[in-house]
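Action item from last week, closing it out:
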Amino acid sequence: MAQGIAEQQIIHINFESFAFSEFKTANKLYALVKEKIQTTDKYYLLLDEIQEVTDWEKAVNAFMVDFNLDLYITGSNSHLLSSELSTYLAGRYVEMPIFTLSYKEFLDFKAGYTNKTVQNSTALFNEYLQKGGFPMVHTADYPQETVYKIVQDIYASVILRDTVQRHKIRDVELLERIVKYAFDNIGNTFSGKNVADYFKSQQRKVDVNTVYNYLKALESAFILHRVERFDLKSKEILKTQEKFYLGDVSLLYATMGFRTSLIAGILENLVYLELKRRGYQVYIGKLGTQEVDFVAQKQNEKVYIQVAYKLESEQTVQREFSSLQAIADNYPKYVITMDDFWQENIDGIVHQHIGGFLLGE
């Protein structure tokens, strides 16, 4: 509109609104949009939560063929960009994944929504660490208890709508146990068999395929992100012992409380999400018996990252730097920690505070 586009040329439909509840099929949606397009001018069509429409791919394809428009669709489920969409719109769409707030965005929210100005960068990072990145919780200066209640409600609605209902999961109690197992092993490698073996030790028999199906359902709702391992010698992706990270760290606190014992995994989670926001493909690196927390690639760029809570001993320094020192190429290498004072670089490997890394270029 600021560029002179007339308001009637902008069509916005939110399928979670009851006002559009009768337009949940491709045919009815097409008829609605066709009625609103009155001229040959370019129209701007914005369709929110498009997955609520049956056969929506057919309607979207028809809009692109029949009308002069710029089309945006959003959906809160990973099955949105399905194989059907690839078939209908191959080469004609750009995907833009949306994550919860980055640290930089959190600081913007802090400045824009509250009157509190905190100069202490450590205090600001700790607040972000403990409250997570869901935008709603940063629109006011909510106490911790309220933040976790908001996140619990988000979690409950996603579990119910995007996991249980969509995937027709019958054993909800088992699903929640698998969620807690994954949350409790944030930053650790495990497989569906590990989960099944754990339940077996608890005198509960669970089929491995069921575990994989439930983990896949949690991925599709963006509660979990699966990260594969990459062998740095053979250049092959390994199919065992993946890691799972949370869609937002506040999900852990809201469901299991603040777990200081998981701080290293939580920091890894923050770094992983930041790399994904910046458009990197992210893997766990395997180099012989050693592991690199993240190998991140984007076109011709590559970066190696180790994440630790603090470098409190010579043994810790040796452990975190040695795997990066063993990599022969000259791509950037980082060790990311919460150390405020010790910032020494070793053999060209940059040691950086996580707050600085999240705000850096």
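Closing note: The longest helix spans residues 144-165.
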